[in-house]
Here is the input.
Amino acid sequence: MGNTVSCCVSPSGSPKLPRQVECLEDYQISTELSDDTGPYLQHISDREVPDDLALESNPSDHARASTIFLSKSQTDVNVLWILFCGCAWLYGCKCIKCSFFLKVSPGLVSKKYSSCSTIFIDDSTVSQPNLKSTIKCVTLAIYYNIKNRDSDRSLDIFDEKMHPLSREQVPDDYSRTDPEHKLIYRFVRTLFSAAQLTAECAIVTLVYLERLLTYAELDICPSNWKRIVLGAILLASKVWDDQAVWNVDYCQILKDITVEDMNEMERHFLELLQFNINVPASVYAKYYFDLRSLADGNNLSFPLEPLSNERAQKLEAISRLCEDKYKDLSRVAMRRSLSADNLVGIRRSNAVLS
Here is the structure.
């Protein structure tokens, strides 16, 4: 698939412009003709919107945009602070009220700090996160997205009343009662443990969830959170894991849901995402570190342990293994180069005898 085509297109033909031009008025599409082989046809990459014209406010696509869940989680702390003290800046204020608030507020309690004699580290990295802690942070992010939502915009395909996940009767106030963090955690943990999914898949699940909220202009609320989370997990497990879980496997986990319902929900989820399932490394890293910030602010810090000789040797071995892999990849990618000295032979310096 090149930029020029020399067959199957008449010279008098002209490429058709896409219909969705009104949403991007400044984005011009080139339709110049090639002199040698006929009319110029766009490559698929040429149709992509440049970075300066794209919506940089979408956190699931751009690393510079702030994640939705982190901004939602800061709402509760800011409201408590304003009601309690009302100062201009909490962390810069020296009054007695702000000092007391900083001491008693969750996430700001005493922590373990490294010293010259003891170093505290956790076993979670951006490439290999801790599974249990990551699931807790991801479900807490979902909880804040539900609790501090702007409205209740939803679609019928995600409504639990219209598409129940179990045979149990859905309560009448299901759309008005916000789920607790423990309920969301148990739901996600059950799926991850039954399907044997990884911690990286949980982070990608959160990326897809917030991308759905942004693209489709929806709100995750009590009436749709289970099906939205299930759709995000289903898609993330297929994209991320090499051995993906089939839809029928999720039907065996949930038991009362049909394969046809799963297929329909997955199809709608992909359409609402505009089939954009790409997760850049920068976006993944941003979500990982924002989840760590969320954990620090809600007393869900990753378990810290003193650095021992065994753990130090293990970390050193992992670092050497990664370094060796990087060197091997660099050697394969790097072409062998020859200098000009090898082309003219070896030059010998003249000896001066006195």
Q: What stands out?
A: The CA atoms of residues 313 and 319 lie 10 Å apart.
